[in-house]
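Below is just one:
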Amino acid sequence: MTRLAPGAVVDGFVVEARVHAGAMAELYRVHYESGRADPGFPMVMKVPRMGSGDGAENLVGFEVEQQMLQALDGPHVPRFVAAGDLARLPFLVMEYVEGRTLQSLLDEAQAARARPAAADIARWGRAIALAVHSLHQQNAVHEDLKPANVLLRADGRAVLIDFGLSWHAHYPDLLAAELRPAIGSPAWMAPEQVVGVRGDPRSDLFAIGVILYELATGELPFGAPATQGGLRQRLWMDPPPPRALQPDCPPWLQELILQCLDPEAASRPPSAAHLAFDLGHPEQVLVGERGQRTRRTPWTAQLRRWIRAAGLQYQPSPLPSERVGEVPIVMAAVPHHDTSDATLYALREAVKRSLGIRPGARLACVTVIAPPGVQQDETALHRQHAEQLRQWARGLDLHGHQVSFHVLQADDVAAALLAYAEANHVTLMVLGAATHGLALQRWIPTVPARVAAEAPCSVLLVRDAPPLALLHEPEALRLASG
């Protein structure tokens, strides 16, 4: 990507100094051009990295964060200002939050070879829990909590940043659509995330436990594993108790930390609000054997957990049925090759009718492409097909409807569509009666036939309706009547 130069003007924003350069994006301070009043708070522009060596996750994460920032509000998230055109220069402009990251406080403690006081840990932990509770009240889960993604304001409140891996109950899960398990930062990832379950607010509580553990001990409870096997160990293994590493750690703090780190989500605090209350009232914490422990769980107990975890099926916390009813999701499966204008036209007309009888429905336009080859630019390929979906949808009346565009990578088209529909609680899937390039053969089910047979939702199969034939329909009717 091209680095923005100070003084450059991007869609009415004047670029100032670069304030951060990360693996997935760069951040620049910005202000409005002269003649336009600033919004009353400092602003920062976030530009995703999209070079030839960068994966499509950067672009998907950008889309997720844009979606999340516009859906969330309150003092615990940056205020959204504007977004750039994906086809030209993707960027997000948001509030620049004045404060320090929790990571900087950890780095200071490491440099001084000292640990923060338990009271400070509790205060910071409570601020994080309150911010997370605000997020959960808005039907969102951060999914990537870590010290670098927590800003502490001067007044003590926490602000959560970097929503590129987040999940929202009212929006399709773009990252789950990528069909890539274990999405998140390995050191802070909850066991259910390791096996591919997203959308459980208790995953954020696990991440808070990891943060508190590191604050209390200077170590990460499960290290920073780089393999799937290393990640899966947290499904059954306990970390060393904080008091084994730091004898001065209060039992009440260890009790809360290990409760958050429980492999079973149901055994963690009932909510972030409960955790915030305990951290604000440590004298009220009921300390049991777990809080007094100074040795790891015996290997026999670990073995029993390992056996149980081998057959454990994690399930996300159930969503209230009215949540799905408030924002039904219509999924349009749009083919990108071996198709015709007639098929694309028929799909668009069917989707138009479906949205017309479902006020407030959300439209998810989905296409499935094969994983890119070694010589292909994954980011460019993703952008190309996303733009094709947008062009297809331009003929729809989307007033009053939310719409999103998803490019899935999979060799098995039907499996990808089915997995997307299930993961996103799709109400209705619309697709062509013989599309996506699989030849109709008696011994091989077509993609539409397989989807219709296995889909967890209603399926509308659409036959071709050539637009030219429709244009001549009045004349054909006149000739028939004569």
